[in-house]
Specification:
674 residues; five-stranded antiparallel beta sheet; four-stranded antiparallel beta sheet; 26 helices
Length: 674
């Protein structure tokens, strides 16, 4: 008997542990699965009590509890199956009605089982000392018991039907997740039927053990499911339809795998019976620029055939294992005619590197690299829309094509930057070319806005400078010029927003400047990174930017706000969050704007965050801004003295403010006063 107790105890423990893990995942599906596993743990514990029963009353009580736990377990199983298989696109029909019906049946069966403890309406008991079963008090079924078993099997059938329906409604490669659970359910149901019917003399109910030990499998299937077969099929489909020719050679240099695009390009690969060697393939393909097969290389190949694009960028990679041993070679061919920016039809950055490396590799110097960008496009987008802004970018690209030598390599980089590369062109000549392009751009600008074209130049004179270094140098030169260019929208963004805020609110430029300086001082005292100090300074200026969307009648009201007015005022944090999120330059502080009115005790808004849940930069601004408001006059209050303000900070420390921040802030403040 001890062995039985150990096994059922372990099953209960397993189910309980995974129930806790499941509840921690949160969400409706987690709750349903957690309920089922918790019920499975209770079933195993109740079964132990049933085996240990040595009196008639103990047998009746433990058996009723055991069957009630089974009811709860199968009810939770149905809930879990419906939530687990429910499509995100099509909710399960009549879900609430089904839940209600099954809940009522569970309640009714539970009532009968409770009644059975005092009056045998479901089953009666007989003691058999010589029974082969581990349980000596065996029950004799009455009509109520048949209702109970019918209910349990109904639940199992509903669960099986729901999973079966899901299994056959999705593609084959995704069925494993549901098929495994369905198989376990069917086997468990058969084993239980054999045990209950007595067709085989089994000493214990193995189904109960299975329910307990099923926790890991159910948890994995629900939250951490990975089907190797599905992934292999998916990867194969991706390779077949990726639109990029690919060929893999094994460690013996024979073709191991290809995709459809490579086979279309080289029909000889369609012959599956012929094993093609890598060197033979290289000769067939005539890769003239491939220097050897011992090192990684990037080269260009021009297709002489009719199938496929005319030009490809080829990436040849030597594959090695963790010990550095050769395990094969991979060749990926990118269509250079496709590797273009869709808006400007200029080459991609990688294509630019490849072509420029080839120019530099010929040793023909000087090689000149130019990076240019259009100022004011953001403003054009805001006023006229993206279509007009895109038109201006295409215009700039067309001017590059029309005015630069045909041998020039043109590309579109990140952030709207465009690059051009030439050979045997000195800087002075490149300046004349781009000044001419700039004048033409200004002449055809019909937006009525002061937009401009800015550029930077770098010259490669020997092999000591790489294309990447020259590109970076030219880009940095261009950006330095943009900072001094009046048409650069970025330089005026902060000034514009700050002015709008000061005009809308009672905030003054002095308050903004004081808050920024003190916030940065406090941030330095806390040891914040330089990146965070920059965000903090920006946050100090714009944390109340949402107030520009609050009616002036509320914003400038000298008296106390009504409850309705206060609710409107509180929305300024969310409005500020949306304003900042819409700007690329301000997205990094959007979350801190949203939470700068949270309180340390959790009674703030809008999220009711508490303690360390509140972002640190938001907590800092709360302390600094509150102190500055205390010691300066506002329409709704008179300034208090410095000592009184410090007492107020200490009083609210731990409720409104972070206690640690208050302590550090007061030290910084006193050092400043001294």
């Amino acid at each position: 008997m001890t062995v039985f107790y150990i096994w059922y105890g372990l099953a209960a423990l397993c189910a309980a542990v995974f129930a806790v893990k499941t509840y921690m995942r949160k969400g409706r599906l987690s709750i349903c699965l957690g309920n089922m596993l918790a019920a499975a743990a209770a079933v195993n514990v109740a079964y132990i009590a049933r085996m240990r029963a040595r009196t008639y009353y103990a047998a009746s009580l433990s058996t009723s509890i055991y069957f009630i736990c089974i009811d709860l377990m199968v009810l939770a199983l149905v809930h879990y199956a419906i939530e687990f298989t429910e499509s995100r696109k099509e909710p399960f029909p009549y879900k609430k009605l089904i839940y209600a019906a099954l809940d009522l049946m569970t309640l009714a069966d539970g009532a009968f089982l409770v009644m059975n403890i005092f009056r045998e309406v479901v089953m009666r008991y007989q003691f058999n000392l010589y029974s082969v079963y581990a349980i000596k008090y065996m029950y004799v079924a009455k009509n109520g018991f048949h209702f109970h078993m019918g209910f349990v099997y109904l639940m199992l059938v509903v669960t099986a039907y729901v999973i079966l329906l899901k299994t056959f409604s999705i593609p084959k490669i995704y069925r494993g997740r549901y098929r495994d659970g369905l198989l376990v359910l069917i086997v468990a149901g058969l084993v239980n039927y054999i045990y209950v019917s007595g067709k085989l003399r089994i000493s214990i109910d193995l189904t109960i053990l299975a329910c307990g030990f099923a926790g890991p499998m159910l948890y994995r299937n629900t939250f951490d499911y990975t089907s190797r077969g599905m992934l292999n099929s998916t990867r194969k489909m991706i390779l077949e339809y990726m639109g990029t020719p690919m060929i893999l050679f094994d460690y013996e240099d024979y073709v191991a795998d290809t995709n459809r695009d490579m086979r279309n390009l080289f029909p000889v690969l369609n012959n599956q019976e012929r094993k093609i060697n890598m060197m033979d393939f290289m000769q067939i393909a005539s890769f003239k620029d491939l220097q050897n097969t011992m090192t990684d290389q990037v080269f260009e190949w021009y297709n002489p055939g009719e199938e496929g694009a005319r030009a490809y960028q080829c990436n040849f990679t030597c594959l090695k294992d963790e010990k550095g041993r050769d395990i094969g070679h991979l060749l990926i061919m990118k269509n250079m005619e496709v590797e273009r920016d869709m808006l400007t039809q200029l080459y991609s950055k990688q294509s630019f590197y490849t072509r420029m490396d080839n120019l530099v590799g010929r040793g023909i110097y000087p090689v000149t690299v130019v990076v240019c960008n259009t100022n004011g496009i953001g403003l054009v987008n805001d006023v006229y829309g993206w279509r007009k802004g895109n038109q201006m970018l295409r215009l700039a690209a067309d001017l590059l094509r029309d005015n630069l030598p045909q041998t020039a390599v043109l590309a579109r980089l990140e952030d709207g930057d465009m690059a051009a590369g030439f050979t045997e062109v000195e800087q002075e000549y490149a300046v004349r070319l781009f000044e001419n392009i700039r004048e033409q751009y200004r002449a055809v600008n019909d937006t009525g806005m002061n937009t401009d074209l800015e550029y930077g130049i770098a010259v490669i004179r020997d092999a000591g400078t790489t294309v990447e270094e020259a590109l970076r140098e030219a880009g940095d030169s261009m950006r330095r010029k943009k900072l001094m260019n009046e048409t650069s929208q970025k330089s005026s963004l902060l000034d514009s927003l700050t002015q709008t805020l000061t005009e809308s609110d009672y905030e003054t430029e002095e308050h903004v400047e004081r808050t920024k300086d003190m916030a940065v001082r406090l941030g330095r005292a806390l040891g914040l990174s330089d990146s965070d100090l920059g965000k903090l300074a920006l946050l100090a200026v714009l944390h109340d930017i949402g107030k520009i969307a609050i009616p002036h009648a509320i914003l400038l009201k000298p008296g106390k706000l009504t409850s309705e007015e206060w609710e409107i005022m509180k929305t300024h944090t969310e409005k500020g969050y949306r304003i900042a999120s819409a700007s690329k330059e301000l997205q990094s502080i959007a979350e801190y704007i949203l939470h700068h009115h949270e309180r340390w005790d959790g009674n703030g808004y809008p999220g009711g965050l508490k303690g360390d849940e509140i972002p640190l930069l938001s907590r800092i601004i709360t302390v600094v801004d509150s102190h500055d408001v205390m010691v300066h006059d506002r329409p709704y209050h008179k300034a208090m003295g410095q000592a009184q303000a410090e007492e107020e900070l200490l009083r609210c420390s731990g409720s409104q403010f972070d206690p640690h921040l208050v302590t550090v802030f007061l030290k910084v403040l006193n050092d400043e006063v001294i």
